[in-house]
Amino acid sequence: MTIKKILFALSLLLLLSPTYAQISGGKGSYEFQLPPSFGEKKMEVYYYRPLGDVTTMPILFVMHGVLRNADVYRDNWVELADKHKILVVVPRFTQEDFKGDRGYAFGNVQAKGGKLNDPSIWSFSLMDKIFDDVVTQTKSKQKKYDLFGHSAGSQFSHRFVLFMQKNKADRIIAANAGSYTILDENVNYPFGIKDLEIDDNRLKALLQKDFVVQLGDKDTDPNHSQLPKSVAAMKQGSNRFERGHYFYEKAKKQAERLGVSLNWKIRIVKGAAHQNSKMAADAAKYLYGE
User: Fold this and answer.
1) What order of strands is seen across the sheet that includes strand 145-150?
2) pLDDT tens digits, 195-253
3) Extended strands (E) in 34-162
4) What is the tens place of the pLDDT at every residue in 51-92?
5) Could you count the other beta carbons within 10 Å of the beta carbon of residue 95?
6) How far apart are CA 229 and CA 29, in angstroms?
7) What's the fold here for domain 3-288?
């Protein structure tokens, strides 16, 4: 075989082989190949890997806000990751590939006209796939991951709970969401669950999830520039703190109606406004201890 043929064979092998060990020590990012249902696109996945045995570290997914600033959200977790020895993973849902609230915060569950999209193109469907890729790269022994989302990331996170019946997420925290999908069969999505085929058995399962609604007690600005102000959103309350309580109380009433205990928790962070860093610190304490 000539040198030219050997080089060609090697280059072909590299193209066809999956890329491993992209997650090196410290801060970084890598490109994740999206499934064919999303087209020939790649997603930038930011991460922070602290010193230690990465194969035994808990894996935490952090969902960024409306600015799509995955690097900032990752950086907010660096000291916490060092302290608790956790691998932090922050997928970046770009505005180009996941347009507006519909594409990211609402999970791409619906098309523009309101028709339900196939689950294969829901934004939520990517989480387990990225997790599997991270596990392969790091040879992790973890079977599940934790999920924390703030602001628009919190909208993503709580809807992930509602829609992804089968997933590899363990504990999920939704912090300071601007609006919610209330467990109300008379309200249209994304603010309610009308016509979404979520029956009572499904509701019972949802209410048993290990899920935390995390709220900053100072996140009460009714004029915050990023606060959703549609009619449907305003019905949930005038600010994020009120809306989080409204969402939780509606779930509580559903649990009472169905005769099941509510496993969800509401967690108040004193002195925190719409600040991801403060919410992250409290989330780390809840998930991984002092």
Assistant:
1) 26-33, 42-49, 87-91, 59-63, 145-150, 169-175, 211-216, 265-269
2) 998 999 999 999 999 999 999 999 999 999 999 999 999 999 999 999 999 999 999 99
3) 42-49, 59-63, 87-91, 145-150
4) 999 999 999 999 999 999 999 999 999 999 999 999 999 999
5) 12
6) 34
7) Rossmann fold (3.40.50)
Interior/surface letters 222-237, b for 16+ CB within 10 angstroms, e for the rest: eebeebbeeeebeebb
Report the 10 Å Cβ neighbour count for 286.
Answer: 17
Domain residue limits, the chain = 3-288
Residue among 86, 87, 251, 85 nearest 174 (CA): 251
Angle between helices 200-207 and 240-258 (to 10 degrees): 120
User: Is 213 in contact with 264 (CB distance < 8 Å)?
Assistant: yes
Q: Is the peptide bond before 50 cis (omega within 30 degrees of 0)?
A: no
User: How confident is the prediction for the chain on average, in pLDDT?
Assistant: 93
Q: Report the distance separating Cα 4 and Cα 144, nearest Å.
A: 45
Q: What is the 3-state secondary structure (H, E, C) of 106-139?
A: CCCCECCCCCECCHHHCHHHHHHHHHHHHHHHHC
